[in-house]
Each structure stands twice: as C-alpha cells, then as structure tokens.
Design goal:
Low-confidence stretches: 367-371
Strand content: 15-25%
Distance between the termini: 66 Å
Structural class: alpha+beta
Helix content: 10-25%
Strand order of the largest sheet: 2-3-4-5-6
Radius of gyration: 40 Å
Order of helices and strands: HHHEHEEEEEEEHHEHEEEHEE
Largest sheet: 5 strands, antiparallel
Number of helices: 8
Number of strands: 14
Length: about 425
C-alpha cells in the first residue's frame, strides 16, 4: 500500500514525518490541489481486492459490502455469522454439556438424565443438573447428592418425622448444601465456605478476583486496556483457543470436567469398597481381592483406607489386599455379641453347630446290624458315617463334600482403589 507521491502536489508531513496527505490547493498563492494519480488508485484497488479474494470471494461490481464480508469470514473462520459453539471456534480444551453428561454416566454407572426440578427428587441418590434445564439448581452445572431417612421422600412434607439433605458439587468448584424437615420447605442453598462478607460491594462487575474458596475478593468494571487491540494481519495467529478467550458459555474446561468426574466417582465408590462382578476380570479402577501385595505409593488412597489390616506386604513399600477367593463374607460383629471376639478382616474356618440325633437303626456296609430303639433322650450313642451319600430320604439324594456350605454362585470379588 502507498501514500500520495511527491509528484502529486501533496501536503507534506500532514500525518507525521514523511506521511504526506491530500490538500485542496490555494489559488491565491498558486498552490495547486493534490491529484491522486492512477498509481495510488491502483494501490488501493489491489489492497482491497486482495482481502476479498483472500477470503475466497470473487469480485462483484454490483456489491458494495464485499470488504466487510471478507473481514468477517477471515475473523470468524469463513462462517457467515459469529460462532457460539466450541467447534465454531476450533476450541480444543473444552467439553460440551452432552459430553459432560456422558462422562458422568460412565463414571457413576447410572442414568444421568437431567431432572426437571431438584425439589421433585423422591429418593436418595446422585443426579447431575443443568441450571438452564433444572429448576432450583445452585450453580450452572454440577452433581447433587440427596440423602433422606425415608425410601420415598414426601413431595410436600409430612407430619411424620422425615428429613432430606442435599449437597451440590458445582463444576465451577462450588459446594452448596440445603435441607428439608417434616412439613417444611427446602431451605435456601448455602455455600460451604468461610463465613463473613468478602469486602466487595454488591453489584455487577466485568472483572473479578476469586480466591481458592470461590469467594470474590476484588472487582472492577472493564476498561479499554482489558481488550487487546490486534490488527487484521494477526487474526490467524492471535485467535484465542480457550473457552475464556471467547467467553464461551456452553462448555466446561477439561480441568472442571475432570474435577466433577473425580468427585462423582469418589462419592459413588470410595477407596476400600468391595463389590462382586459377573465377569472374570476386574473393571477399571478395581483390583481383584486375591490377597496379593501391591504398592503403597501406587495405591495410596486404598492404603489410607485399609492400611495393613490384611497384611503388611514387605513391611515398607507394599501392603496386602483382602483375599476373598472362595470365601463367604460375614458382617463384622462390632460388639453385638453374635460373633464375638473377632477383629475386622479376620478369617474364620467352617464349622457345624453341635447337636444330637435319636437313632433307631444303624446300617453298615455289608450285612445290616439292627439296634433296638433306645427311646427318646436315652444315654445310648452310636457313630454314623455320612461320607458316601448313598442313602436317599424324602428330601432327595444327599450331597456330601469336604466342607459345609450353602447353595451359592461364584462371582469375582474386587476392591476399589
């Protein structure tokens, strides 16, 4: 691009040293007016035409807005209007709402369809929410954990003793709680954070400073210095690639999604939970409860939960998992007195409760030996061999084995790490 040349009677240094401009001339002094000249018009023509053609358009004499269309196309990635989605800007560090819902469904293993109203939840459990679609949501996106003392929570309260508690984990890092007792309504959502005012006056601000607890500690309005000025030549290399760079409102960052998924997984199955699975190999996040020694560093959360209850491993770098292969699990007595004297995680061998039989006849292999009936509760005793299982009674053929056991199905016992 060029300015008016010296040979066109310019007004010298009109816009600074060496930056000549146009002038009307002065007939009284004989100063002629500045004439543009064909070379200047050629320069302007090619400058503007290169922008239009560079945007992929053909020059059309009957259109006077092609330069504007070309600038928009270059700035907005060759789209007719300004994008408002992640893909529209080529964002690579964000997830859409549907992707967040799918991630939560995979992590929790439950249906994560958004509820219409958090007030209408009728059972204890965990559900996600979207403030745009779910009434009474405490933040834009997150997960709500509901705990109640009844299986079906009364929708409008009851005269009986009933309570319900909700804890919300927002994808923005917020933590909110509320509750409802008997016939009362839900209380207002309350932030789980330090109490007291933040020191920022009530109002709407363009720029805020937030501490690690989600509190606004400083705020001000935006000014011209907050908006960087780029010329068009830097649009391709200076375009933002983050959510915050474009003010995207329909997505969450990868960090926020990871935090939400971690919170959801930990709430659903904390380290140390034991579960049975109907397949031969443990799922992701689980170890087979086979008594093996594993790393204390690699499985730090599990080690913090169970310690060396099931074995100290090598005594320094490893610890043992519980070995549940071929075992039945029995609830820990915990002081009740039904199975007294045991610590949690201890092994107990099979046993058969002591009892007695009234015997009229005893038969051995070969010739039968008949004993007269001794009567009820007599002191006479006889030894009965019950290992061959050849005698059938009214309940069918007996089943004998090397252990006493109930009817059962073998599943894979695993522990969450």
């Amino acid at each position: 691009m060029r300015r008016v040349g010296d040979n066109r009677n310019p007004v010298r240094d009109k816009f600074g040293a060496g930056k000549h401009g146009f002038g009307p001339g002065n007939p009284q002094t004989g100063q002629p007016a500045t004439t543009p000249g064909y070379e200047l018009f050629d320069s302007w023509q090619e400058e503007m035409a290169s922008v239009v053609e560079g945007a992929g358009f053909a020059l059309k004499p009957d259109q006077n807005n092609q330069l504007l269309q070309s600038i928009r196309a270059i700035a907005w990635g060759n789209t007719a209007s300004r994008p408002n989605t992640l893909d529209g800007y080529g964002i690579t560090d964000g997830a859409t709402k549907s992707q967040l819902a799918a991630a939560l469904q995979y992590a929790l293993g439950i249906n994560v369809d958004l509820p219409a109203d958090l007030n209408s939840i009728s059972m204890s459990g965990t559900v996600p929410y979207d403030k745009a679609k779910t009434k009474n949501s405490p933040s834009d996106f997150g997960v709500v954990l509901t705990i109640a003392n009844q299986i079906n929570i009364p929708p409008t309260g009851t005269s009986q003793s009933a309570w319900a508690f909700q804890s919300a984990f927002g994808t923005d890092g917020s933590r909110m709680v509320r509750m409802r007792v008997n016939a009362g309504n839900w209380t207002a959502w309350m932030a789980v954070a330090d109490s007291g005012p933040s020191g920022v006056a009530t109002g709407t601000y363009g720029i805020v400073t937030v501490d690690d607890r989600g509190r606004v500690t400083a705020a001000r309005q935006m000014n011209g210095g907050d908006v960087p000025g780029h010329d068009w030549s830097k649009i391709t290399s200076g375009r933002p690639t983050t959510l915050a760079g474009y003010g995207i409102t329909d997505g969450v960052t990868v960090t926020q999604m990871a935090s939400a998924v971690t919170n959801a997984v930990t709430s659903a199955a904390p380290p140390g939970v034991v579960a049975n699975f109907a397949m031969p190999n443990p799922p992701n996040g689980w170890l087979m409860a086979n008594g093996s020694a594993v790393s204390r560093a690699a499985y730090a959360a599990l080690f913090a939960a169970i310690g060396t209850t099931y074995g100290a491993g090598d005594g320094s770098t490893t610890f043992n998992l519980p070995d549940l292969r071929g075992e039945f699990v029995r609830g820990w007595d915990g002081g009740r007195g039904v199975d007294a004297g045991r610590s949690i995680g201890t092994l107990q061998y099979d046993a058969f409760q002591g009892h007695r039989h009234n015997v009229n006849q005893v038969w051995t292999t070969g010739a039968g030996i008949t004993f007269p009936s001794p009567g009820v509760n007599s002191a006479w005793q006889a030894t009965i061999d019950a290992t061959d299982g050849t005698v059938a009674g009214v309940s069918g053929a007996p089943r004998v084995a090397s252990e006493t056991r109930p009817r059962n199905v073998a599943l894979l016992a695993c522990i969450k790490f």
